[in-house]
Design brief:
61% helix, mainly alpha, 6 helices
Amino acid sequence: MSCFSRRVRFVTALFLLLHFTGLNVTPALAGLAPSRVSGATTIASTRDADLLVVQRALEHKVVAQKLRDYGVEPEAAKTRLANLNDSELHQLASASAGLPSGGDGVGALISIAILILLIILIVKLLDKEIVVR
């Protein structure tokens, strides 16, 4: 037998039906969020934009390590960067545009390992065998 009366079950089912139908019918509203300029990234000229690009490239781990390998300290590179003229700075910014923007790939390797472990777990839960030949 049931714990709830027939009327309570009917009202609950009707409420859930109307609720889920209403969720699927109502339109979703979306819009673009307005952008705000932060104090640290105000770009007033092309020189500022180029300077920002080069500074971000110097913060990359691979670039910083290569500078240390050549005997250049990152602080000395930033000091020299401030003394460059506009054309030299633009040339350096154009050259650094091809650098990878992101980490060193460890995140991608971890994601792949988790994906493989997840596939193995699903296959084991389905009582299948993995045979590698």
